[in-house]
Write a structure and sequence with these properties.
Distance between the termini: 41 Å
Order of helices and strands: EHEEEHEH
Strand order of the largest sheet: 1-4-5-3-2
Helix content: 25-40%
Structural class: alpha/beta
Strand content: 5-15%
């Protein structure tokens, strides 16, 4: 029986605004004409770690919520990805959605080479509407993919700070 290839790291989406703020506080790891990428070697904040105090409690409350009364297992190799696409750089909702989908797809393509932790890809400049008049043109999709692939391939080979 042939040996199995090592499992690729799990890819999750960042959702908590506190995680976005933590990651974006640091310098960007790399950038292209339109995008920049930020990385933080950490795990996302866990929601609900403070269970509500009941008036019938006689013991101190546990630090874990009722649904999960055991500490979380270490998440070695996990990658959390977030996308920041401001309206000032992509006015149309359909364009913002396209950019976010492409960011998550690029992260999935490069997840084997990315270091574990929190990653955020941020749109930092708009695309020229004269070159890309359609909100979801194939040309825009190709331009976004090529920039994202170059960006993530560049950070995959550089060590974290």
């Amino acid at each position: 029986m042939p040996a199995r290839a090592p499992a690729s790291p799990a890819l999750r989406h960042l959702v908590a605004s506190a995680d976005f703020e933590r990651v974006l506080r640091g310098r960007s790891r790399a950038s292209t004409a339109q995008f920049s990428v930020h990385h933080l070697v950490a795990e996302p904040t866990l929601p609900g770690l403070r269970p509500a105090k009941l008036s019938t409690d006689s013991e101190p409350a546990s630090e874990y919520p009722v649904e999960d009364s055991s500490p979380a297992a270490p998440s070695e190799g996990r990658i959390w990805i977030g996308a920041v696409v401001p309206k000032r750089h992509a006015r149309r909702a359909v364009t913002r959605s396209l950019l976010k989908r492409e960011i998550y797809a690029a992260a999935a393509r490069h997840r084997d080479a990315l270091a574990p932790g929190l990653w955020i890809v941020r749109l930092r400049a708009s695309f020229d509407r004269a070159l890309f008049p359609s909100a979801t043109s194939p040309a825009l999709r190709r331009a976004v993919r090529s920039q994202l692939d170059a960006l993530l391939a560049g950070v995959a080979t550089t060590p974290s700070r």
